């Protein structure tokens, strides 16, 4: 009964542009008391929260998951993401801070040094990232309002269809922003009772006079390149003529360069501007910062793997370059992890919550990483231990707790190693690339970073000293952006050794300098010889090594010790080698790709050319490209369509279609129903933009899309 | 008019062969294949007396002219444009005949004959050139873009005149040479000669196929594109849907009512898969994402079920409301205003949004939202529907979707909908996309009958044929009736003159009609004349266009038989 009613509504309202969906239809909207809601608002809000929890997360483990675990997953997600989200937000706020200060300072003092008759203008070089402009200009208008006591009108090229519309928007925005004096009359009528048109700046003037403060009116052109240059010139010259009465100032968001922007304006217009240029931190560096705080940070509960991150970063660099997108993608990865991974609630300290149920233990035993660790144990002849883990739940849980703890240490070690690597100048790769590589593959003595060790070998004493200094500093201070605490007191021997080497090198340098000698190691010497061998004989090479002084030898020893130590401490496992990494590792590129980079056209083409991929029925299963009458009409028509040239005769395609579905066999359609389907399919093809009307010939349509292009 | 005059002159000169010509005209009517062959194949019928005569017995008058036609391009070496074509024409034409057993001697003999008749040939050249030049002008003026189209135009024009004057034939290759790849000429000349007259209609089809054989199946997409867009490749038949009675709205809906979808089970199954992801969508919506469903098929029913699902999970309906928006509704062009005001009434039924532009309303709506603790789920059907594609819509929708209190889920039907948004809009929508191929027919979203008729170039609102016209005329004044009769009569006469129905009806000059109308006391002033015409325009009973010289031409958009019926009715 109820569903019938709903369907009725559904059919009834299908031609309405918009309506409120209310299947119960119990209360009349107009007479609904507003009071009731306000009284019980808080209570209801909390209730709503509860019901949402149960509804949006699904039971996993084939429905065996208990509700507490489901709730826990959701809560864990919300808790963890809110931390990360706020960290990211903080970064975003910070990044624009210096620009904001500069701009507001400029505008505050503009009146003092701007020549008469010129409008103070700030050109903000935003770069191509128009997606994050909104945030920037929002912050700007906020800051200007607070610090320079200015009213900011934000204009986008979309708002500015003509001069009148722009003026109207400027006036409306200035007036409506000031909510304290919300009297609309003030804007439309002058003192003498005269009415102003809504695009008359006189109205704005009288309004500002009433407001009695000498407020700056800042007009921000967010995407100044997209504005029509004629319109912009008109607007600027108009506003500059009002400058005496209304103090205007401009903000231009410039994506390219001020010179290009200037070239688009009239010379006379340019002369009425007086401005300065402000740089905004570019997307790449912001992304890097966000990467450090949200992905690589020591407190991040989830490790994102290179499959996912690589895709994300590549898309970021090559295609979108939009910070909100990046953040949302990260968020989506978290959502996926907690939504679909039943073990995800274990991430921070889920064991204490007691939500662990037998099914979870079963699942834990099936994890590949666990099985791997059992295999390792058996190989090492610890069969008893393996047996206990397989049979005793308590032992398993104990092991789990240990492993999760280990994970924290592992992250710290990873970050320290990364820090050591990145401090060196020899590593040219991005931090993010290094992070992805090492977190996934691990780092051991035999591998890919030989280049790094080589460079240390060949270091000049000066460089070496500098590097050691930096290293010691990092150990003493950690890295706040990565959440890395100082760790020199944790590894006193390393710290002591490095300090000792540093001191010795310093001393050696002083001594050699006294002797008028240049300190070098065996390796650096060789490298110098290598350069000279291009002209010299081979004999010289051995002579040169022989001439190493005692100082050089002791420096070489120091380098050796340094290298040995580095090699001994630079050792990290790959994430996949960690037991129970499935709990905290998310590395799937698929939901991300499907969800953020849709390929609607391919999907549509696939649906139409191979409908049996979607419709499971056997009748639609045909060999490739074969047309049968049982296919959906549009699919048949689409097949025919694929074979046509750029001009399609509707009569011919109709007869071809009718030949396929027609009455020849016993199941065939009569002409009129076939025509109905033909009509419907043609209308769909038109709506999807495959065909359009052609005037070249009667009853012909033009083909607009080619499959696979 | 000019053309007929010239044709008459030609006719006067070549009366000798008129009998054969007439017959060939009757047979040739529908095809546009190059003329020489046609005439050749029709010749046995025309000269039935000496049926046994073979082509290489002795050159008849016909033969001579034909050969002359083949030779002319060579003679006209002064035209550089045709120079290249000569070689081809020369080589290929004889080859076609060789297969029929023609000795090499014949051409050389006839060449001598042709040489003797210079004056006539020159004149022929001139007329053919005029024609192709005109075609060129028309091409430029009308903006006809593709080559094959022009080629056809020229061929047709030349062909029309060849009904009266065979000599003009030699213009055909010339005319083509202006436009076409030279390689087409041997083809055209050679192929038809192998065909028999009786299969004139089929021949058209086979010829096209021979010239552009269906490309192999497994071409990569880009190759297929070029194969299908090859200049000259896209020859389509002249069939029209004239014989098919098109669907009316009534018939459409009654048929639709009786029709049962054979794939219903599968569609339901597909639907059930999508329904399973409802909780996921709810989660995504609750986390500040907007959801966009794409894929083939109508997603309206699915979204409606989703709305139901959301409704059932809401505990307090005062705090969380659902607004369904149908983007495809086209009658209502101010739908953005509607959408916003419905949303505002969902927040607070008593609140009236400030009048003004959409952005003002949006600001107003935002402040309204911030003062109420409500969540609104906006379910938008077809975000890429034509009404929502107008400028200004998408930014507002993006602002709406970006609002934290608004959850936004929409569907998109076209394959290229992502082009609607630039990166800024896209990130304020913050969409997650889901493939929701449903295979459901678009029942409400599309106005099927109107769409298809528009696609076919038939105006949906046009009065329906003969009955419609008589119905309209019945309500008009006597003068209007007379004017329409006059117009239909003139158009019919023009049709008879041109004898070509493949394209639009021929037009008659506005001035001429006006003068005649004045003569017949239908109207006294041009003003009155215009007023009468306007009535016809409103019912789309006449069409008017301008020709190359800017003369206004009036015509009637009905096929010939219907026109005759109308004329009978009025008279």
From TrEMBL, chain A:
Which residues belong to any copy of the Origin recognition complex subunit 3 N-terminal domain?
A: 46-346
Q: Which CDD domains match?
A: Orc3
Give TM regions. Answer: none
Q: Which InterPro entries match?
A: ORC3 (IPR020795), ORC3_N (IPR045667), ORC_WH_C (IPR040855)
Any Pfam family the entry gives: WHD_ORC
Its principal location?
A: nucleus
Extract the GO molecular function terms from the UniProt entry: DNA replication origin binding
Q: Where in the cell is it found?
A: Nucleus
Question: Is the Transport keyword given for this protein?
Answer: no
Recorded protein name is Origin recognition complex subunit
Q: Give the source species.
A: Xylaria arbuscula
TrEMBL record, chain B:
**What name does this protein carry?**
Origin recognition complex subunit 2
- Region of interest (Disordered), residue spans: 1-222
Query: For bias kind Basic and acidic residues, which ranges apply?
Result: 118-127
User: Where does this protein have compositionally biased stretches of type Acidic residues?
Assistant: 58-70, 160-170
Q: Where in the cell is it found?
A: Nucleus
Provide this UniProt record's keywords sorted from A to Z. DNA replication, Nucleus
**What family, per the record?**
Belongs to the ORC2 family.
Subunit annotation:
Component of the origin recognition complex (ORC).
Spans of biased composition, class Polar residues? Answer: 1-16, 43-53, 79-91
Q: Where is the Origin recognition complex subunit 2 winged-helix domain?
A: 504-562
Matching PANTHER family: ORIGIN RECOGNITION COMPLEX SUBUNIT 2
Q: Which domain of life is it from?
A: Eukaryota
Q: State the function annotated in the UniProt record.
A: Component of the origin recognition complex (ORC) that binds origins of replication. DNA-binding is ATP-dependent. ORC is required to assemble the pre-replication complex necessary to initiate DNA replication.
All residue ranges annotated as the Origin recognition complex subunit 2 RecA-like domain in the record: 267-436
GO CC, any one term: nuclear origin of replication recognition complex
Name the GO terms of the biological process aspect: DNA replication
Organism lineage = Eukaryota, Fungi, Dikarya, Ascomycota, Pezizomycotina
- What molecular function terms (GO) are annotated for this protein? DNA replication origin binding
Where are the compositionally biased (Basic residues) regions? 194-212
């Amino acid at each position: 009964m109820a569903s019938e009613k709903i369907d009725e509504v559904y059919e009834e309202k299908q031609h309405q542009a918009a309506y409120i969906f209310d299947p119960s239809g119990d209360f009349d909207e107009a007479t609904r008391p507003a009071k009731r809601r306000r009284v019980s608002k808080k209570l209801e809000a909390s209730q709503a929260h509860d019901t949402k929890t149960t509804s949006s997360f699904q039971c996993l483990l084939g429905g065996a998951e208990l509700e507490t675990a489901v709730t826990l997953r959701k809560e864990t997600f919300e808790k963890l993401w809110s931390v990360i989200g706020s960290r990211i937000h903080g970064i975003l706020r910070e990044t624009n801070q210096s620009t904001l200060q500069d701009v507001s300072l400029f505008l505050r003092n503009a009146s003092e040094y701007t020549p008469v008759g010129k409008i103070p203008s700030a050109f903000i070089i935003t770069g191509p990232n128009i997606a994050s402009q909104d945030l920037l200009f929002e912050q700007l208008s906020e800051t200007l309002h607070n610090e320079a006591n200015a009213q900011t009108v934000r204009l986008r090229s979309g708002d500015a269809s003509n001069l009148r519309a722009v003026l109207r928007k400027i006036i409306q925005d200035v007036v409506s922003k000031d909510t304290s004096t919300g009297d609309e009359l003030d804007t439309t009528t002058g003192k003498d009772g005269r009415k102003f048109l809504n695009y008359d700046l006189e109205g704005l003037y009288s309004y500002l006079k009433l407001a009695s403060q000498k407020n700056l009116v800042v007009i921000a052109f967010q995407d100044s390149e997209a504005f029509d240059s004629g319109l912009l010139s008109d607007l600027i010259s108009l506003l500059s003529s009002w400058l005496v009465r209304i103090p205007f100032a401009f903000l231009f968001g410039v994506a390219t360069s001020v010179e290009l922007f200037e070239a688009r304006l009239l010379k006379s217009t340019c002369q009425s501007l007086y401005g300065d240029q402000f740089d905004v931190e570019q997307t790449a560096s912001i992304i890097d910062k966000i990467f450090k705080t949200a992905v690589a940070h020591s407190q991040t509960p989830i490790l994102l793997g290179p499959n996912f991150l690589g895709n994300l970063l590549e898309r970021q660099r090559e295609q979108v370059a939009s910070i909100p997108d990046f953040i949302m993608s990260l968020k989506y990865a978290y959502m996926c992890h907690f939504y679909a991974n039943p073990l995800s609630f274990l991430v921070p300290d889920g064991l204490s919550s007691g939500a662990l149920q037998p099914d979870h233990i079963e699942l834990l035993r099936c994890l590949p990483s666990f099985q791997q660790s059992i295999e390792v144990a058996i190989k090492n002849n610890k069969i008893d231990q393996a047996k206990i883990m397989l049979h005793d739940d308590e032992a398993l849980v104990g092991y789990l707790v240990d492993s999760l703890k280990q994970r924290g240490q592992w992250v710290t070690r990873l970050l320290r190693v990364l820090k050591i690597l990145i401090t060196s100048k020899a590593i040219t790769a991005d931090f993010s690339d290094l992070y992805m590589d090492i977190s996934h593959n691990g780092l051991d003595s035999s591998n890919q970073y030989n280049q790094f060790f080589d460079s240390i070998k060949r270091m000049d004493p000066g460089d070496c000293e500098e590097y050691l200094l930096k290293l010691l500093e990092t150990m003493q201070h950690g890295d706040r952006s990565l959440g890395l605490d100082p760790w020199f007191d944790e590894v006193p021997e390393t710290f002591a050794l490095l300090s000792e080497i540093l001191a010795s090198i310093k001393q050696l340098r002083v001594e050699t300098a006294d002797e008028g000698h240049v300190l070098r190691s065996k390796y650096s010497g060789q490298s110098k010889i290598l350069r000279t061998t291009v002209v010299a004989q081979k004999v010289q090479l051995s002579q040169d090594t022989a001439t190493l002084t005692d100082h050089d030898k002791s420096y070489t020893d120091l380098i050796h010790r340094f290298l040995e130590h580095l090699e001994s401490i630079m050792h990290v496992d790959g994430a996949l080698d960690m037991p129970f990494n499935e709990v905290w590792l998310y590395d799937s590129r698929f939901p991300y790709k499907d969800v953020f980079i849709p390929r609607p056209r391919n999907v549509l083409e696939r649906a139409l050319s191979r409908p049996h991929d979607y419709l499971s029925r056997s009748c639609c299963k045909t060999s490739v490209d074969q047309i049968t009458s049982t296919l959906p009409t549009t699919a048949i028509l689409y097949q025919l369509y694929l074979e046509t040239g750029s001009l399609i005769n509707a009569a011919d395609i109709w007869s071809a279609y009718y030949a396929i579905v027609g009455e020849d066999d016993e199941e065939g359609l009569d002409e009129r129903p076939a025509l109905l389907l033909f009509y419907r399919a043609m209308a769909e093809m038109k709506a999807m933009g495959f065909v359009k009307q052609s005037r070249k010939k009667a009853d012909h349509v033009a083909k607009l899309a080619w499959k696979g292009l | 008019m000019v053309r007929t005059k010239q044709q008459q002159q030609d006719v006067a000169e070549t009366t000798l062969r008129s009998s054969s010509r007439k017959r060939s005209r009757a047979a040739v009517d529908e095809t546009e294949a190059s003329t020489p062959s046609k005439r050749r194949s029709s010749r046995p019928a025309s000269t039935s007396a000496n049926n046994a005569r073979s082509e290489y017995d002795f050159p008849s008058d016909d033969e001579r002219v034909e050969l002359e036609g083949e030779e002319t391009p060579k003679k006209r070496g002064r035209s550089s444009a045709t120079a290249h074509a000569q070689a081809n024409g020369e080589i290929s034409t004889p080859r076609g005949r060789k297969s029929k057993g023609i000795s090499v001697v014949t051409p050389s003999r006839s060449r001598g004959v042709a040489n003797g008749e210079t004056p006539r040939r020159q004149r022929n050249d001139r007329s053919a050139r005029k024609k192709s030049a005109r075609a060129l002008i028309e091409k430029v003026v009308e903006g006809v873009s593709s080559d094959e189209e022009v080629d056809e135009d020229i061929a047709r024009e030349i062909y029309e005149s060849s009904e009266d004057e065979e000599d003009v034939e030699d213009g055909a290759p010339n005319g083509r040479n202006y436009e076409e790849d030279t390689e087409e000429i041997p083809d055209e000349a050679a192929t038809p000669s192998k065909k028999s007259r009786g299969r004139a209609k089929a021949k058209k089809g086979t010829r096209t196929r021979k010239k552009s054989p269906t490309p192999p199946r497994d071409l990569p997409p880009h190759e297929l594109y070029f194969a299908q867009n090859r200049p000259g490749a896209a020859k389509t038949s002249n069939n029209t849907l004239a014989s098919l009675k098109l669907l009316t709205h009534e018939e459409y809906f009654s048929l639709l009512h009786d029709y049962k979808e054979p794939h219903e089970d599968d569609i339901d199954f597909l639907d059930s898969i999508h329904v399973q992801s409802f909780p996921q969508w709810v989660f995504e919506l609750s986390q500040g994402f907007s959801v966009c469903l794409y894929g083939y098929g109508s997603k309206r029913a699915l979204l409606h079920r989703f709305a139901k699902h959301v409704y059932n999970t809401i505990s307090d309906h005062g705090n969380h409301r659902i607004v369904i928006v149908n983007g495809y509704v086209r009658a209502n062009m101010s739908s953005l205003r509607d959408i916003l005001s419905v949303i505002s009434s969902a927040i607070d039924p008593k609140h009236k949004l400030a009048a003004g532009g959409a952005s003002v309303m949006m600001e107003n709506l935002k402040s309204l939202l911030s003062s109420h603790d409500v969540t609104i789920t906006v379910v938008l059907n077809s975000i890429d529907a034509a009404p929502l594609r107008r400028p200004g819509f998408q930014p507002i929708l993006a602002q709406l979707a970006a609002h934290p209190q608004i959850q936004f889920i929409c569907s998109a039907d076209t394959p290229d909908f992502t082009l609607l948004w630039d990166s800024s809009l896209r990130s304020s929508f913050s969409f997650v996309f889901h493939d929701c191929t449903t295979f459901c027919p678009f029942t409400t979203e599309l106005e099927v009958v109107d769409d298809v008729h528009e696609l076919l170039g038939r105006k949906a609102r046009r009065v329906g044929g003969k009955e419609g016209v008589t119905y309209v005329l019945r309500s008009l004044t006597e003068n209007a009736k007379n004017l329409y009769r006059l117009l239909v009569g003139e158009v019919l006469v023009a049709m008879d003159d041109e004898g070509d129905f493949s394209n639009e009806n021929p037009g008659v000059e506005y001035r001429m009609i006006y003068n005649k109308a004045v003569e017949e006391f239908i109207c006294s002033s041009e003003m009155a004349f215009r007023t009468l015409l306007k009535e016809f325009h409103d019912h789309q009973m006449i069409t008017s266009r301008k020709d190359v010289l800017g003369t206004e031409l009036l015509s009637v958009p009905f096929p010939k038989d219907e026109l005759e019926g109308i004329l009978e009715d009025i008279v």
